[in-house]
Amino acid sequence: MARIAVLGSLPSSLVAFRRFLIEAMIAQGHEVFACAPDAPDDVRAKLDEMGAIYCDAPLKRAGMNPLQDLATIAGLTRLFRRISPDVFLGYTAKPIIYGSLAAHFTGVPHIYSMIEGLGYAFSGNDVRRRLLASVLGAMYRTALRHNERVFYLNPDDIEFSVQQGMLAAREQAYLIGGIGVDLLHFSPRPLPRKVSFLMTNRLLWDKGVGEYVEAARQVRARHPDVRFRLLGGLDVNPNSVRPEHLQQWVDSGDIDYYGHQSDVRPFIADSAVCVLPSYCREGVPATLMEAMAMGRALITTDAPGCRETVEQGRNGFLVPVRDTHALAEAMLRFVEEPALVTCLGQESRRIAEERFDVHKVNRRFLDAMNLMRGSGNFTLQDASSAA
Question: What is the CATH number of the domain that holds 276?
Answer without folding.
Answer: 3.40.50.2000
